[in-house]
Amino acid sequence: MQPPVQRRRLEPDERRSEILAVARTLFGERTYSAVSVSEIAQQAGVVRGLINHYFGSKRELYLEVVRQMLIVPPSVAENLPRTTTEERVSICVDRWLDVVERNREMWLSAIGSEAIGQDRDTEKILLEADEVATDHILQAAMMSDVVEGREKLRAMVRAYGSMLKAASREWLVRGALNRADLHVMLTTSVLHLLQTVFPAVHGND
Amino acid sequence: MQPPVQRRRLEPDERRSEILAVARTLFGERTYSAVSVSEIAQQAGVVRGLINHYFGSKRELYLEVVRQMLIVPPSVAENLPRTTTEERVSICVDRWLDVVERNREMWLSAIGSEAIGQDRDTEKILLEADEVATDHILQAAMMSDVVEGREKLRAMVRAYGSMLKAASREWLVRGALNRADLHVMLTTSVLHLLQTVFPAVHGND
DNA sequence: ACTTCTATTGACACTACGCCAACAACGGCA
DNA sequence: TGCCGTTGTTGGCGTAGTGTCAATAGAAGT
Lengths: 205, 205
Hints:
Two copies of one chain form a homodimer.
Chain A: H1 12-29, H2 37-43, H3 48-55, H4 58-69, H5 85-102, H6 104-112, H7 120-140, H8 150-174, H9 179-201
Helix pairs in contact in A: 1-4, 2-3, 5-9, 7-8, 8-9
Chain A binds a DNA duplex through helix 3.
InterPro entries (chains A, B): Homeodomain-like_sf, HTH-type_TetR-like_transc_reg, HTH_TetR
Organism (chains A, B): Nocardiopsis coralli
Keywords (chains A, B): DNA-binding, Transcription, Transcription regulation
């Protein structure tokens, strides 16, 4: 007699999440093209076609994974005390480090998939995430409503975001920096950008 | 009668470069998996199998492209005057901006392929390039032979490198920052890291 | 128990990749 | 000049991955 691996019929949402969970893991540890849909299907205990049924194509499934992993919890910039900019930014950075430390591997594989400027869709998702992060920082610095030179300001903060990610990786992966180091570095750097560089740059056409 | 497209027999090196040139273009404008070897072969006026002959596999060809695009010209940190750290760093940043501006599209597609932590090979190539860039900066800042806290220092500079890339992108692609802005931002930021953050962080275990 | 709905399956068509034996262009040698 | 060996180059074969779709079979409602 056959092993009783009869087909399970699940709610679409449930099946969807099961597949997504597997995909998240595999895409996290290998390249896009090094992961086959068959493999995802197999590990999810499902036939390959079903994945196309739920997500359309492999690429769409991948984008869904990236999207899901890049949600930055808004808690990072919420309920900040009404003190100095310095202190607010410091708290914000601290919360960020908390989030990253807690979701270590998930966050790592999230930024691991960074393929900037390669295809429109991935790029769009990443850019959106960056904008959200930028909002958080500006909010913490109480500079959300700067209008003059707004774009320059945002551009600088976006660039800073890259350093933030890179530094976090240095901490988590290589261990070359510890948490306290990061805190100092990230806090003072963004303050330097906002309080020194931005005013200096502000005039240039 | 057929067009006289008889087969050309070239020197291996020459054929190799022709294929690489096409591959560079295509991988530059589309994702790895969105570019087929057949397409590269076609545009290079060559049969698909020949590419396997020269590069082994598609992935190896890709890695070759990435490797070739990431060579940072050492001229950036060469022959710097023996003046203050500030001025030397300033010159270094300026030269960097020159390089980037001149090789605009090539550089953009180079960093476009950044896929950190995805597969070992790509990661390795990127890390090596980062180390070289770090050397340049430390050399400019006359801090090449710092021993105490060397790893922290390098880690910070590597992280700074990410900001440098991101800021350059902001300049070239979005135009949100101009060259003068970048110069101020990049120069003062790295000085801030080296002269303020590094000493502050130095003690922490 | 029967029907209905739809989640799930299996098979088909197509494309892409790696491999390999056969072919032919070019340089050497008589 | 004409043959000949080296090797750059080709075309085709086998396999694996992807997307589509009609057919199947759980599960819920009657």
